[in-house]
Design brief:
This protein is of the alpha+beta class. The protein has helices at about 20-25, 60-75, 90-95, 105-120, 160-170, 180, 190-205, 215-220, 230, 235-255, 280-285, 295-315, and strands spanning about 15-20, 35-40, 45-50, 50-55, 85-90, 120-125, 140, 145-150, 155-160, 170-175, 210-215, 260-265, 285-290. A hairpin with a 6-residue loop joins β2 and β3. α7 crosses α10. The protein is globular, with a radius of gyration of 20 Å.
Length: about 325
């Protein structure tokens, strides 16, 4: 069971929690828009991202990943992690989504589509990393065992056993509630950028690189826009600007209620991107988050201290 209950009251109003690990972070970026191939003699397809492979019959997109994160957050902030059952209402889902869901009927339809997508997929993971709690691999994991949307909009989801265990063995991560409010159709790139930045913040909390990332790395984790290697092959800056640079900066503007930011050019000087930049300078520049609005620093500090005490205790026993 995740050991974060004692510090949960230190969360701020604009943040929730989700349980995450290297596997689930990669899983959130698998999409049928990139790195997808058909399975011979089958209606199914394979979508890949890094060490994750997803076999699916339906779709996998930003809206699906967003719903998975929402359900994950409800499980994380719940009081009984031994139970794989998660309950909420369509009205609660609408409230979390903010203004992007315009009616109950529309919200229910979108939610059902995402849940149907999740039910149809199976994902596998090979490896682990220094950022994972465990070095493990697994194959053919279902995410949910079943779900129901009952009369009155009552939603009941049962996590599949292996996925339930994966979450219970994962780390809590502060999650901006803005990630539930961004429109997955029109603001997908903004969603991936913010999720990447908050993962880096969580992973490197207290370190100098917690608030800085090279643009090239961020782009690799944004499957909603063309891969930078694909754009590089076109070999002219006008194409790169239209396909990648402009959408990137436009997406960042959607995140100003969560972060303030600046850029440093490869030569170490401030990057004046408003006057136009070439593609090579862009991908090798560094995005620096100068401030996070309402980030739960007290929560993370308390959590890190308790983990360190626990780790030191284990070392003394060995």
């Amino acid at each position: 069971m995740p050991k974060h209950k004692a510090t949960r009251d230190l969360l701020t109003d604009n943040y929730s929690l989700i349980l995450q690990d290297n596997a689930t972070n990669q899983f959130s970026r698998t999409t049928t828009k990139r790195n997808t191939k058909k399975i011979a003699m089958s209606k199914k397809r394979l979508a890949t991202f890094a060490s994750v492979v997803v076999e699916l019959e339906k779709g996998m997109d930003t809206a699906t990943a967003q719903v998975m994160d929402y359900v994950n957050s409800l499980f994380t902030t719940g009081t009984n992690h031994k139970s794989p059952v998660i309950e909420f209402t369509v009205d609660q889902y609408m409230e979390a989504a903010g203004k992007r869901l315009t009616s109950y009927r529309y919200a229910r339809t979108k939610l059902k589509k995402a849940l149907d997508n999740i039910m149809s997929l199976v994902f596998s993971y090979s490896g682990g990393s220094k950022y994972s709690k465990h070095d493990y691999s697994f194959a053919s994991m279902h995410v949910y065992a079943e779900y129901k949307i009952k009369r009155g909009g009552h939603v009941l989801i049962t996590l599949a056993p292996t996925y339930h265990k994966l979450l219970c063995d994962s780390f809590p991560m502060p999650m901006p509630k803005l990630l539930f409010q961004l429109n997955p159709q029109t603001q997908a790139t903004a969603w991936y950028i913010l999720r990447t930045l908050v993962e880096n913040k969580r992973m490197n909390f207290g370190k100098s690189n917690a608030d800085r990332m090279q643009v090239k790395y961020i782009l690799d984790r944004c499957p909603s826009i063309p891969a930078y290697k694909e754009v590089m092959s076109k070999a002219h800056d006008g194409h790169a600007s239209q396909r990648l640079i402009e959408p990137f900066f436009t997406s960042l503007e959607s995140l100003t209620e969560a972060i303030d930011y600046t850029f440093i050019a490869p030569d170490g000087n401030p990057l004046n991107y408003e006057e136009g930049i070439d593609f090579d300078t862009f991908i090798n520049s560094t995005l620096i988050v100068t401030s996070w609005a309402d980030y739960p620093n007290q929560y993370m500090t308390s959590y890190a201290q308790k983990r360190k005490i626990k780790e030191n205790h284990k070392k003394s026993e060995n």
